[in-house]
Amino acid sequence: MEKIIGMVMPMLDGSGITLQIFFITLALSLPLGLLVALARISGIRPLRFAMEVYIWLMRGTPLMLQLLFVYFALPMVGILLPDLAAALLAFTLNYAAYFAEIFRSGIQSIERGQYEAAKTLGMTYIQTMRRIIIPQMLKRVLPPISNETINLVKDTSLIYILAMNDLLRVARTIVQREFDMTPFVIAGVFYLAMTFVLTWLFNTLEARYAKYDE
Amino acid sequence: MSDDVMIRMNQIYKKFNQLEVLKGIDLEVKRGEVLAIIGPSGSGKSTLLRCLNRLETIEKGTIEVEGEFLVQEKNSITTYTDAVTAKMILGKMGMVFQQFNLFPHMTVLENLIEAPILVKNMKSGDIIPVAEQLLAKVGLLDKRDVYPSRLSGGQKQRVAIARALTMKPDIMLFDEPTSALDPELTGEVLKTMRQLAEEHMTMIVVTHEMAFAREVANKVIFMADGEIVEQGNPQSLFANPQELRTKSFLQNML
Questions:
Q1: ipTM
Q2: Which residues of chain B does A126 touch, with a Cβ-Cβ cutoff of 8 Å?
Q3: If you average pLDDT over every residue of chain B, what do you get?
Q4: CA-CA-CA-CA torsion for A74, A75, A78, A80, nearest 10 degrees?
Q5: Using the beta-carbon criterion (under 8 Å), do A121 and B90 form an inter-chain contact?
Q6: B99 interface with A at CB cutoff 8 Å
Q7: Contacts of B91 in chain A (CB under 8 A)
Q8: Sign of CA dihedral A203, A207, A213, A214
Q9: Shortest alpha-carbon distance between residue A105 and chain B (Å)
Q10: Contact B4/B33 with Cβ under 8 angstroms?
Q11: Greatest distance between any 2 Cα atoms in chain A
Q12: Tens of pLDDT, residues A91-113
């Protein structure tokens, strides 16, 4: 028992890093994703094209490669970021691209009549998006956003290659030191606990949005 | 132009890709007049209405609303007015859609007060009594706090009418307001529209409701293939149509 507690304590520290990356990435990539989505459907052609390229790059290459690039390649051109900032940059850029595509599909699923009603009532494009389209879109995209968010919890484990002591890396270190597989089991339980909380949170959000049907 | 002409459309041409949907429409609506536009599907009647409030843009022609040009020919180039003037002109017109287009994430009352607050910067304390009065007028005050999904089609359309009225338009446009409704629900919507007409609201109604056109409209236009085939007061047009196409259309409808 004592042995297990001895394992759990450093793993809790590791979870701290994991959660830190998770929350900051989420807080940055959700709004960024929304902006990218709006740019991606805007009438400004160069902007639209730039967003398409960005999304293509982010979805078309492994997140691992993007992490390595930010961490090892950027310093070569003089951009040297602290470990955490490097990880956050890569995660945020990657996840914003995925969120952007979810938001875009959500926005484009809103009926044209909603825009027309808003327009005939005198609302501007920005007012229409802010008050009419985006609130309805959020309800529709909750399930895929929930999916991506749970993916993010697990993807944070990729930072082990940046030598940051997140949950999985701590677990691996203990396993290698003690020749005992228990830390992997504990890590699994930790990840499950985090995703359980997220699932509950998103279910609550969906229930709240269920106050209106479409 | 005489003062009581509210809307004047001249030589309106509109194409969707290669398809000409409006081929030189001329139209005038006077203050307090109810104009009904009838005709088969694909005749361009909805498009005409949508051009008037710029949900569609025209290729050629002039549109004048209460003495202001939304679009006119300048040196034989069709030119839309600047954004500020356009907003002012479009603000004079309220629109009711076939598919209601209520905002599903807002309650009935929120649907009504959203635009006055956003667009006219009204305080909710000032607009809520107005909205409630309008809801009472369309007989739906008891529904003020429910979401649109809880309403029947007829109730939705009456809310949509009230919503358009909160912006105090001078002209109300109706695009087949009863076409998406079960027959037993059209009556309540038509009754609300009739009430508006009795209050001398200027109205343009694209409709398949011949009885409404006959009883409420001051003027009826029959359109087919992007042209006005025949127009006149409802009594003579319905009782004694001159054109063959009008005759056969009315025979099929009645």
A1: 0.94
A2: none
A3: 94
A4: 100
A5: no
A6: yes
A7: 122
A8: negative
A9: 18
A10: no
A11: 70
A12: 999 999 999 999 999 999 999 99
Q: For residue B56, give Cα distances in angstroms to A69, B189, B203.
A: 48, 26, 19
Q: Provide the CATH number for the domain formed by B31-43+84-252 in this structure.
A: 3.40.50.300
Residue B172 β-bridge partners: B94, B203
Edge-first strand listing for the sheet containing B219-224: B93-96, B171-175, B202-206, B34-38, B219-224, B227-232
User: Which DSSP letter does residue B82 get?
Assistant: P
- Compute the distance between CA of residue B209 and CA of residue A211 in angstroms, rounded to an integer: 36
Average pLDDT of the segment spanning B187-211:
95
What are the tens digits of pLDDT across the range B120-135?
999 999 999 999 999 9
User: Shortest Cα distance from B95 to chain A (angstroms)?
Assistant: 6
Residue extents of the structural domains in chain B: 31-43+84-252
- Please give the structure tokens belonging to residue B154: 């007829």
Q: In which residue are the tokens 């599909």 written?
A: A105
DSSP codes of every residue in A127-146? HIIIIIIHHHHHHHHHHHHH
Residue B3 confidence (pLDDT) above 70: no
The dotted CATH code for A2-213 is: 1.10.3720.10
